[in-house]
Amino acid sequence: MADQIKLADIVVDCPDEQKLCTFYQELLGWSRSEMFGHPAVVSENGVMFLFVQEEDYVAPVWPEEPDKQQKQLHFDFLVPDVAAAVAKAEQLGAIKATAQFGGDHFVTMFDPAGHPLCLCLAD
């Protein structure tokens, strides 16, 4: 049975599915698609992010704080040039996190919906 289970997509809840889809399409250069009536982006090797608009969406807080919406996951993206990737992400609407723990290895950002993501130096 386990060999029959395959990842279909990663659903990303957000307040504006079109805006967040455009952000990731432009940041990652993935193809735009649609699944179940929602916008999506797909990588060359078939990884799909599906964006679903939630009216009561609450952005996570990172680093975590008591009694605040906690992050459930975050994305790590390998990039050849961290500074260039940060600049591109900021141009597209991402915000660099105030707290940074990656040194020269990665920078933590927040996408336009507040999800944390790391731009990590590809070795």
User: Mind telling me which CATH architecture of the largest domain this is?
Assistant: Roll
Distance between the termini: 36 Å
Structural class call reads: alpha/beta
Shape from CA axes? Answer: globular
Portion of residues within helices: 10-25%
What is the count of helical runs? 2
Summarize the helices and strands and which ones pair or pack.
Layout: E1 10-14, H1 17-28, E2 31-35, E3 38-42, E4 48-53, E5 75-79, H2 82-91, E6 95-96, E7 106-110, E8 116-121
Structure description:
The longest helix is centred in the N-terminal third of the chain and has 12 residues. The mean pLDDT is 95. The strands form two sheets. This protein has a four-stranded mixed β-sheet with strand order 1-4-3-2, covered by helices on one side. Strands 5-8-7-6 form a four-stranded mixed β-sheet, covered by helices on one side. Strand 3 and strand 4 form a beta hairpin. It folds into two domains: 56 residues, Signal recognition particle alu RNA binding heterodimer, srp9/1; 66 residues, 2,3-Dihydroxybiphenyl 1,2-Dioxygenase, domain 1 (Roll), CATH 3.10.180. Helix content is 18%, strand content 32%. It has 123 residues and is of the alpha/beta class. The relative contact order is 0.19. It is built from two helices and eight strands.
Summed up:
With 123 residues, the chain is an alpha/beta fold.
Structural descriptors:
123 residues; alpha/beta; Signal recognition particle alu RNA binding heterodimer, srp9/1; 2,3-Dihydroxybiphenyl 1,2-Dioxygenase, domain 1; 2 domains; 4-stranded mixed beta sheet; 8 strands; Glyoxalase_6; VOC family protein; VOC_core
